[in-house]
Write a structure and sequence with these properties.
- The chain has 15 helices and 13 strands.
- The protein is globular.
- It has helices at 15-28, 46-55, 73-91, 103-114, 142-152, 161-169, 183-194, 221-236, 250-260, 274-283, 292-301, 315-320, 330-342, 344-350, 362-373, and strands spanning 6-12, 35-41, 62-63, 95-99, 123-127, 155-158, 177-179, 207-212, 240-245, 266-269, 286-289, 305-307, 323-325.
- The chain is of the alpha/beta class and 386 residues long.
- The two termini are 33 Å apart.
- The protein has 2 domains: 6-182 and 358-373, Glycogen Phosphorylase B (Rossmann fold); 202-351, Glycogen Phosphorylase B (Rossmann fold).
- The protein has a 7-stranded parallel beta sheet, with helices on both faces. Strands 10-9-8-11-12-13 form a 6-stranded parallel beta sheet, with helices on both faces.
- Bound molecules: uridine-diphosphate-N-acetylglucosamine.
- The site of uridine-diphosphate-N-acetylglucosamine has 22 residues, from helix 1 and helix 2.
């Protein structure tokens, strides 16, 4: 039996990591005799991170505050490594938990590995492990971040059976893989409880297309081309309004503003806080996105999603029929979105609620898996099944 409570450091830096890690932190806090959760933020995304933390009422214990305008991947990586070294030596935790595929995740896993000292290795637990596109540079750098994190991790929390198969194919030992579902659904249910009911809250009778786009492989021409489709959709469909939630990245904003600012029935808005964003998704008619998390949330809300990318590491939504990969070409996006706006049967075929990613109990399973991994219990938690 290990010495309790086990110190578990959660490290995250961007908005999606915060959303998906928050339920795990709240769950760890329910077991004070067994776990001592310590919350570390790198603040790779300063402003977008703070919104989420407030919403989930989580106060970080340590804040590396690494964000710089126009930060490069090299700068993020080296600043996370340098910032975490003394902190991890000082905290000497039993485990570090990271979530997803950002550069914070990879760098924090590497920092935990480097912190080996005095014969004690920090166990790295990877939440949302095993997602793959099998294309090294798409998404860039996320696919490589998650592969490298798999190499560095000791405990793998796979959201789906497919993710577990990917891990086993990479040579990960089966006993260290737990199928937990995705904590994004835990967060979604938490947020949904706080929302006003849909019928009292409809801002207008126009059909809303909600748009987000920020990925690095879409910077430049693909971003211009997807904006072209959005502009055409607003022109062609008089009963449609576009809500474009702009990422904070200046590289993204410059193009989006140049292509769409001032156009009729197109609103470019600041990134809403997570709770507002869930409400926008719920009230949208259709969602166009290149985000990973939105691909997981929208199926649960029964909203059709057109994924403006050429690859996806989330095939489950596509298999369930609520998400479709449409690329970034103006004509392709216009055609696919146009069909959903014109044909009720095409729309209804996609607009059904399914939950391939979770049942709202993923953070419970993650904590149960930690209890099992560290020998607090001999009972292995049951795998999540949709
Ligand atoms: C990062 C992640 C990506 C994740 C996305 C979610 C990496 C390399 N990429 O992409 O996997 O999907 O977050 O949003 O880890 N900025 C601000 N304020 C903020 C956030 C960003 O000003 O709160 C600006 C900064 O100028 C920064 C730029 O946005 O330089 C880009 O941010 P960065 O963290 O480098 O990459 P993202 O594209 O946000």
């Amino acid at each position: 039996m290990p010495h309790l409570p086990l110190r578990i450091v959660t490290i995250f830096g961007t908005r999606p990591e915060a959303v998906k890690m928050a339920p795990v932190i709240l769950e760890l806090q329910k077991h004070p005799g067994e776990f001592e959760p310590v919350v570390v933020v790198t603040a790779q995304h300063r402003s977008m991170l703070d919104q989420i933390l407030r919403g989930f009422r989580i106060t970080p214990d340590h804040d590396l505050n690494i964000m710089q305008p126009g930060q490069t991947l090299t700068e993020i990586t080296s600043r996370v490594l340098t910032g975490l070294k003394p902190l991890l030596e000082d905290l000497s935790p039993e485990a570090v938990l990271v979530q997803g595929d950002t550069t914070t995740v990879f760098a924090a896993s590497l920092a935990s590995f480097y912190a080996y000292g005095g014969g004690k290795q920090i166990a790295v637990g990877h939440v949302e492990a095993g997602l793959r596109t099998d294309n090294k540079v798409n998404p860039y750098p996320e696919e490589m971040n998650r592969r490298l994190t798999t190499c560095l991790a000791d405990i793998h929390f796979a959201p789906t059976a497919q993710a577990k198969r990917n891990l086993l194919a990479d040579g990960v030992e089966e006993g260290c893989v737990y199928i937990t579902g995705n904590t994004v659904i835990d967060a979604l249910l938490y947020a949904a409880k706080e929302l006003p009911p849909a019928e009292t809250d409809q801002p207008s009778n126009l059909r809303t297309i909600l748009v987000t786009a920020h990925r690095r492989e879409n910077w430049g021409d693909p971003m211009r081309s997807l904006c072209g489709a959005i502009s055409q959709l607003a022109e062609e469909f008089a009963d449609v309004q576009v809500l474009f939630a702009m990422h904070k990245s200046p590289v993204v904003r410059e193009v989006v503003r140049a292509e769409l600012e001032g156009k009729e029935r197109i609103a470019l808005i600041e990134p809403p806080d997570y709770f507002d964003f869930v409400r926008y998704m719920r009230d949208a008619y259709l969602i166009l996105t290149d985000s990973g998390g939105v691909q997981e949330e929208a199926p649960s809300l029964g909203k059709p999603v057109l994924v403006m990318r050429t690859t996806t590491e989330r095939p489950e939504g596509v298999a369930a029929g609520t998400a479709k990969l449409v690329g970034t070409g103006t004509r392709d996006i216009f055609r696919e979105a146009g069909e959903l706006l014109s044909s009720e049967s095409a729309y209804n075929a996609m607009a059904h609620a399914v939950n391939p990613y979770g049942d709202g109990r993923s953070s419970e399973r993650i904590v149960a898996a930690l209890r099992h991994y560290f020998g607090i219990t001999s009972i292995r938690p049951q795998d999540f099944q949709p």
